[in-house]
Write a structure and sequence with these properties.
By secondary structure, this protein is an alpha+beta fold. It is 36% helix and 21% strand. β15 and β16 form a beta hairpin. α11 runs antiparallel to α13 and α12 crosses α13. The longest helix has 25 residues. The radius of gyration is 23 Å and the shape is globular.
Length: 499
């Protein structure tokens, strides 16, 4: 099927997804992901999480082969490639661009002490004003762990990369990165608008390990002859976009401008908003990175709030509280009979690890206010969903304190956003309009590639065909009830975090 197509690759920790988008119609013509079961994560010790980058490449090849076959698209018809990827991972390569060790991925926590010590030694003011974050458990701290614990291997490192940089390198034979990638690794100095030399010096890293920097939207490199032969692509096909999964999710929802918000609510939940000026939270309760359209001349920052206990709490409630065999839609119907505020039950939803928004306090999940004479399963189910929403809104207050005016939330119609109670509660407490769209990360990466290679003049043209599925407006009549329930929830949270 001849035409102009854009390829998007989304390199996750569970799978690699490929999508082909018809550049002229904006329609996704085929998608596939591998493996069909969740990809393995190596964990030799508690808190460790590693993956073999060769596995990502193998899964990318299988996904690409299937979408090209399903859509009957030839390599010559693919005009550009975009890449989305799991953030914060560390890939180390030698001078021959061979991988030196498995990637230390985003959920690996071994580097936490290294980041915390850097934050203490360098000082909060320096780190936050230049990096906009604590060095935390990000890529720079992971490299510090390698330096101390694997010195012989560290000495062989030629370049460090993020997972998306590695896939781009396998496609092109060229090692490069973006400002967005450097910012998520804590290698970008927002005050000096350059690589964070002070952090490199602190950790004892030679600046040469940083790959060449290319613009997020640009012909960053081209498919090599070797990769073209291996994949059935055309030599010279431009690789013209890459971004971490959360900035890319915002892009896929056409979130580019200050005040715009993108949200997801799967196993964990994310609220990601765009700032037009450099701000940071002095308590480092949210993360701030360069957004996809950040340049040295234009400040566009992505402020990221992550809530760990989102869909995982809803799934736990379904397994342990809901009547056996009940589906999620049936749960939503059952809890709809319960009033806003769940008749006084409050659920604190932080049962999936310490939360950054709580300054890493591990307070767990708890239920409050249960009355044995009037409360049942439906009350607990609704209180759990309300607790998830309230945790989102609690983090959004931090974002508002940083200067973000939240009036509209863009989200895909998936996961928790399928629940009417979840949607209405979020709109009711935040006062924001929610718009639900049909999209995903690999489709967004494909359209980002179209912007980067010039097929689309800007994001508005690229996403002109983005399908809006529904709009949820705040119910002003019920707003006071939603806010009262939220205030009660915050009071309970305050007591727990003050202990």
């Amino acid at each position: 099927m001849s035409g102009r197509y854009l390829l998007g690759l989304d390199v996750g920790s569970s799978s690699v997804k490929a999508s082909l988008v018809d550049a002229d119609s904006g329609v996704c013509v085929a998608s596939a992901f591998y493996p069909e079961k969740e990809a393995p994560i190596l964990a030799e010790k508690t808190g460790w999480a590693e993956q073999d980058p060769h596995m990502w490449w193998g899964n990318a090849k299988l996904s690409l082969k299937k979408v090209m076959a399903d859509a009957d698209v030839a390599g010559d018809d693919i005009k550009a490639i975009g890449i989305s990827y799991q953030m914060h991972g560390l890939v180390c390569v030698d001078k021959d661009l061979n991988v030196l060790r498995p990637s230390i991925i985003w959920c690996d926590s071994r580097a936490v002490p290294y980041g915390e010590k850097a934050f203490e030694d360098l000082g909060a003011d320096i780190c936050l004003s230049h990096l906009l974050n604590s060095p935390g458990n990000f890529t720079a701290a992971k490299l510090a762990w390698v330096k101390e614990n694997e010195p012989a291997l560290f000495d062989k490192i030629y370049k460090i990369m993020l997972p998306g940089d590695y896939i781009a390198m396998r496609l092109s034979g060229v090692a490069n990165t973006t400002i967005g990638g450097l910012s998520e690794g804590m290698f970008w100095d927002f005050k000096n608008k350059d690589v964070a030399k002070f952090l490199l010096d602190y950790f004892g890293f030679d600046g040469s390990v940083i790959a060449d920097i290319v613009p997020t939207f640009s012909v960053q490199s081209e498919v090599s002859a070797a990769a073209a032969a291996e994949l059935g692509l055309k030599k010279g096909t431009p690789i013209s976009y890459r971004a971490g999964d959360q900035p890319n999710n915002a892009l896929s929802l056409n979130v580019f401008n200050p005040g715009e918000i993108a949200s997801t609510a799967g196993t964990s939940g994310v609220v990601y908003g765009v700032l037009g000026e450099v701000h940071y939270d002095k308590r480092s309760r949210v993360n701030t990175f360069a957004h996809v359209n950040y340049t040295k001349e234009q400040t566009r920052l992505g402020v990221l709030l992550c809530i760990n206990g989102t869909g995982i709490l809803n799934a736990w409630v379904r397994r342990n509280i809901a009547p056996e065999g009940m589906s999620y839609p049936e749960m939503n119907d059952m809890m709809a009979a319960v009033p806003i505020g769940s008749d006084g039950i409050t659920v604190i939803p932080f049962g999936n690890g310490a939360e950054r928004v709580l300054e890493n306090r591990g307070i767990g999940c708890s239920m409050h206010g249960i009355n044995f004479n009037k409360h049942g399963k439906a009350h607990i189910m609704r209180a759990a969903q309300e607790g998830i929403v309230f945790s989102f809104c609690y983090g959004m207050e931090v974002m508002q304190q940083m200067g973000m005016d939240i009036k509209k939330i863009h989200a895909g119609r998936a996961n928790m956003f399928l629940s009417e109670i979840f949607r209405n509660t979020l709109a009711g407490v935040s006062g924001a309009t929610i718009e639900l769209y049909e999209t995903d990360g690999s489709v967004g990466a494909a359209k980002g590639a179209g912007i980067g290679c010039g097929i689309y003049k800007d994001n508005n043209e690229a996403f002109s065909t983005l399908k809006k599925l529904s709009v949820i407006e705040p119910n002003e009549t019920l707003r006071a009830e939603y806010l009262e329930a939220y205030t009660t929830w915050k009071d309970k949270l305050q007591r727990l975090t003050n202990k």
